[in-house]
Amino acid sequence: MLLEKIHRFFLRHKKFRPLFLIIVFSILFFLTRLPGLKNDVINPDGSLWHYRSEQFIVGIKNKQFEKTYQHYQPGVTLMWVTGPAVEIYKRLTGVVSYNIDTFQDFDLISKIAIVAVQYFLSVLIIFVLAKIVGFYTSFFTVSLFTFEPFFLANSRLYHMDILLTLLLFLGIILSFLNLKKPVIWRSVLIGFFLSLSFLTKSISIGALFFVLFYTVAYFIYSNQKDKIFPIAGSIVVSFVFFTFLLFPALWVKPWYYISDIFSELVRVGIRKGHDQIMFGVPTTDAGPLFYPLVILMKVSPLLLIGVFYCFLKFIRGIVKKFKSPGGVFFGFTLYLVIFYVGYFLGISFPAKKVDRYILVMYPLFSYCAVIGYQRIFQNLKSSAEKYIFFGLSIFSLAVFWVIPIIKLYPWYFTYTSPVFGSSVNANKIIGQKPYGVGIVDLKETIVTGYSDKSTGEWPNLGFYDTQPIKTIYPNSKVFDVRVYGPSNYDLVVLGINEEMPEKVLKSTQYKFEKDYSMWINGLEYWRIYVRKNLP
Q1: Is the terminal CB of the chain with fewer CB neighbours within 10 Å at N or C?
Q2: Contact, 299 vs 416, CB < 8 A?
Q3: Is residue 146 within 8 Å of residue 22, measured between CB atoms?
Q4: Distance from CA of residue 230 to its chain's centroid?
């Protein structure tokens, strides 16, 4: 009876449907992001960005503006989001310094600030995109990528990839709207969001060139050459203005820091590789297969099926549907495809390859999946077929989203698509990285299980990546096993796909025996080895 009354209410009051959907989206958004946020992941990059954000605020307060340049990425947006939040928390609580007892609180405040900004941007995208494709297509597009398990995992990290994804998508949507109805104020907004994306990660400078090229090409094609200078010029001026306004380091030495950003982008982001394990073999250049495999592994079949159907079965119909008198330039689907294919090629060329970089493409996957499923539904003839389709959709949501989200909580970062059968099989193709997943639980296991029973002293630890554990464990007791010998540590802690160092294996004084394994998502994620004296 209650469901029938709700159904009748929405039939009579159609204007409440969007509001109802936004409320449901909001509840699910925070329900999937806030629980367990304090103890799930302390990623290595995140621990570094805490220090950088603190220095960013110190630089602004003391007018030492050069301190606001911390990294070539450059992460300015992230520091603007989390730096003030942590500063307010310090003033309210009186806790002013980072240490092993306070780090998790600061980390939680920073993550909550990031989640809040992500929520605002996601809702904004829903309403802006709706101006192009309608509210429901827009809503389901944003919902599809928002609740994808791997996207969800990264939205809970203290990192920049989700911010970059949302800011870029918003800038691209606005730039397409500006082709349809070019106005100066929207051009300023485009420059603003493209500036924010650049200030998040420098690789997104390519979005500015894409928007400018497409704008100029479209106005030439549609005989509106008089609009090129005011519209393209406004975008450029706005981009430059907000970049300088929000990046105080540029107030001091603009050319020095801009040149350093791009020189480091080339040196570190393009030429320098990144450690990966492909088919069981360590490599610093994963090759052209890496990102296609990542897409198969980290994007759920729910999205991939829709994308596959969209592109292989209905691409011609979709292009025609979204064309306008502007011709081929005015297809929104084509516009997105050109940009995101360009991005895909851009990340495929450099030696440095990281699975998180594929997150930027999730909005394209989601949009194409929604269009694909819409086209399937539109081709169904009978009510029975539509009910079956609806039932299969609910079943797919349960299998590919609900079950993994419940089962993996809070270790969403270890998600792998069921296409590979299991996380163990996926790990054989592209090696999973520890990345600070479960590091808090690991620390508690070490403290409670391996501390000295008489003195309570915590054991010395040997790690490969020491950065995450050092945030919550005394630095003087953590050693890099690649640098220090076995006499320095009582325990060797190896993450998934990490091997015992040669210097430990060849030691004539000590051997290390495995004493404990921490399993996450079917993977032996952490192993603890205890030092024994050799006779």
Answers
A1: C
A2: no
A3: no
A4: 34
